Model the fold of this input.
Amino acid sequence: MIVVTGATGQFGRLVVEALLQRGTPASEIVAAVRTPAKAADLAARGVQVREADYERPETLVPAFTGADKLLFVSSNGPEEARISQHGAAVAAAAEAGVGQLIYTSVYDATNSPLGLARVHRDTEARIAATGLPSVLLRNGWYTENYTGSLAGAVERGAVAGAAGEGRIASAARADYAEAAAVVLLSDDQAGKVYELTGDTNWSLGELAAEAARQTGKDVAFANLPAEQYTEILAGVGLPGFLVELLVDADIQVAGGALAGITGDLSGLLGRPTTPLADTVAITLKG
Ligand SMILES: NC(=O)c1ccc[n+]([C@@H]2O[C@H](COP(=O)([O-])OP(=O)(O)OC[C@H]3O[C@@H](n4cnc5c(N)ncnc54)[C@H](OP(=O)(O)O)[C@@H]3O)[C@@H](O)[C@H]2O)c1
Done:
């Protein structure tokens, strides 16, 4: 049995979909979710739905029990909350005695200068301490992190950011989800650490140029000082922790933190990762 946490999130849903597409019987998949009502569509397709709220540890052991493989999808929210939520999930995986724990970490977690890597380093250490057979899926950036706001950027004629000439080896969220499904369905994975990145990298200037090319409109990259970028993000109502995370990410991207290309992701997929232009096209059509 395969248990997927965060299965009502964007990534978790894509993993469940990929498992089903690869022929996994729905009854062999457990969607372990914070809010079971949000998974009614999955239940209707025969997927088992169990409550698993990282903030309510008493839900976690029953949700993970019987898992041959548990895909633990990292949580979102402020750092302190995530550290305690992840601690609870890892402890529950150990108590439930899952056959293998597969965790969505961050690219280059060991050395990454990204602020958000702290949670992942802490979680990876907790996982190692359990002694459970485990696999680390160190996910690079989703291309959608940047294309999500692209339609507005095209309207305004500017992609705003603070990453300078820094390059980002991103891939589509669905690429990482499909790779997770491949790992879940493969034998001999225990102990593996995958550094998952796109096959090519790009700069925010190139993202703006691609949006301009596809729309025929003038779109430039506005490289802003970190303080100004912070004000813009806070001004659109993003929570403080997220503003901090996004600005920090751009600063670290400028220093090359997400430029690395490993080939691990296309290796798992057996095909190239989704090019930036394709994700831009899907976004601008939508
Ligand atoms: N690699 C990247 O570029 C990148 C970008 C963004 C995020 N991430 C990380 O990857 C994860 C998955 O990405 P995503 O795109 O699917 O994000 P998402 O759509 O925001 O999904 C986050 C998932 O975490 C679940 N969650 C939050 N708090 C929880 C709790 N207390 N108990 C149980 N589940 C909880 C959410 O449940 P609900 O469905 O109930 O809300 C949701 O399913 C994120 O949570 C984050 O850690 C990576």
Notes: Residues 2-139 form a domain with the Rossmann fold fold (CATH 3.40.50.720).
